């Protein structure tokens, strides 16, 4: 069978995953003889049973005689099965002399029925006394929820399949407590930042194997069975140093028993900025410019000044402005129409096939995704392809299971030559009064005109990233030793990235002319290319033992040895001053301008993992685990560290004294949890323990360029692990027949011994840096999480659920190695034992309203010509002047310490509704210079005319406008609380409404089990104080600053269809 599956997939996707079949085909070798024998047996069996095949019909009901829709009917011992329709009815073709049916339905007790000679049967299923204990994927294994003692959140993959997010990471936002995701803007291919309980980037684990963030982000949502978010050391420490900030663990889909099931998901989406890009009318710009000009003592350019000092429009002037005919450089430009589409289109198509029998299962899928940019040209685009295949086979006779996985993903991204930050900076400077074209109709306005920056003839920047993964695992249930199994795994991962940047001219813009219609010389073309390649080999050997004695004592033990080897290399080449733009290749440019580069890198890790768990009647739960971790970042005698963890749980509801309470019906479960663990961290530069020489600047001598080397910093042979200790205390409870579930966790993290160079405190006469050593720094972080969910069913057709999650934490430095003594003594600037903040900022005292305020208050030394409308600052240290010593801790961190999510779901017959709200507590952003609007050339976007001027009684967002940003020493451009915005928000993050036509129009099509049509949306509504500045609260170009000009966060509306055959 495996050979057949391989051939089918090979024909469709051979050019992408040919290597994968060479690996996976190994699985078919030991099966060849068995398959040949089975084929003969099956042919004989088919002849014998053909005469005995017959149809049996029936109905499946609950104890209230209500039909159960979607119940599974399976002929025992075969893969022959069907599901019930809307009336609970089914028809199945049976083979054999004495067929037996197994009827199952989630939440009900499975029934076994001997058919005998009957042609019709009626089955009544009883509701299960207890809900099925959910199985959760944990590090190196699985655990039932009842036996779980560590802090883990789970998200089902089917919740994310039809969401219109541009990457997988964003799909998790608001769905798991303690997980916050910061958008990287809406740029195609951009990756957001994820944080678990306030930590840095977590480790990503796909099917038990550590992977990169980029590889995780391009997974197909349709291939995902579930997510597990591992938060405390008891859950994550077994993966070592890389799991210091928690783990996002993914389990992909596998094949299942039964007939072949084919699924298709297709969608078309439209995205547009959450905050529309709106420009002032051209006459509003002219008026604002004139108001700013007369306050600076200049004459107005468009309006007239009356005798009383007021501005007015001369007769006919306003119409000439609106019609864009005031002069040859003044227009009425609709920049939105010239630059942007109404929406950026995207499409997704996904097909999967799965099935199997009791020994062999298979799952295959392919997905194509394409996203266009919001520019009017096709200069921005993202295309993504995913292919995946999994096959497993179990040899019953010897207890051996083989699992093979092959996957391939390709992510192609295209950008304009100019960075998107640069383009959007120029967009922020536009105004409707400016012209895009000269009087001859050619683009003008210089090289900073976004219209020529997004011209397809300007060139491009392209990347083509490919991941190929090949996994092979074997598990053997040791005969005659019940509960004992051994296994091995090998994984090979190949990463290829090719980048090409072609600039059609030195400036990377389309053709541009001046106002006299003379073409502007833009320089000659240039090209750069790079190739990055890496490969990883992961091997793992493990022993598992799990057994229950006397129906009371359950013991589980796991021992794992794993190793990880990584090596990479990259090459780069570039040439300039091409004579023609026809040949977009390296050899098309002059060799005299050639430049090249190349590097190589390698890493290695090893670890020995041990875990022992015990429970008594699922009442008392104990666990101990450790990782003996090895990292090549330290000297040989310092590479290994021992990092243990312990965990304990108590299912109080299992105690005999709880029986009277449980019988009252309001309480169903109550569990207490505790865990402690230590994780080793190795966040230090590669080879930091080795004395090395580094390449320096080249110098020209003797008609040759000569390379130089210089000695690196001092090193320490004592460089080794630093540690993070974590404590987690949790409570889980279930009420009202498990309709209401509650979970609460308190967590505490303390990190000590940070590795750093003490060069801030000491100097060396050698003229080089001091080595990194273990410092006495200590940092702690503590908080809590709350999860609540209510689900219920009303009648037989209507069900609903409501969920809520909340997370809050605080953090501080107990000791910070690099804090200078002067700051330690200053309570306004000190970091030690202070809660986290946004940054050291000047504290604004509003805007000066008159000269008396200016003369009677301290001001920055360089601000000698302040006027009413300028920003005033507080003298925080009381020394009578404003300088850097008045910068103090202000604001809330960009990563919020309080996050929450609210989920709503409902279904009625074929209709379904899913809603997710997501929000944050205190969170600030600092507007960057292009959003501060203190300079008159920044008047253009809606709201930019809300600046201070005499007599302005409206809402004022900006200080008076100046001629340049550095006026008065840049007084109005200092990083201060004036530009600090409350960026907390509440979003309608996701909405999906669907209807399954199988419940009505198509219910008689037996070959079709689902035909759902739906509409979904992302970021549909946002409530935030930043909206008055026309800024999305998650706008940000990178991790370190927000409120910046960049490709905006997108609102998405998607239409889709789900088919299952």
Automatic annotation (TrEMBL):
It is a multi-pass membrane protein. Its main location: membrane. InterPro entries: CarboxyPept-like_regulatory (IPR008969), Plug_dom (IPR012910), Plug_dom_sf (IPR037066), TonB-dep_OMP_SusC/RagA (IPR023996), TonB-dep_OMP_SusC/RagA_CS (IPR023997), TonB-dep_rcpt-like (IPR039426). Residues 146-247 form the TonB-dependent receptor plug domain. GO terms for cellular component: cell outer membrane. Keywords: Cell outer membrane, Membrane, Receptor, Transmembrane, Transmembrane beta strand, Transport. It is found in: Cell outer membrane. Gene3D superfamilies: Carboxypeptidase-like, regulatory domain, TonB-dependent receptor, plug domain. Belongs to the TonB-dependent receptor family. This is TonB-dependent receptor.
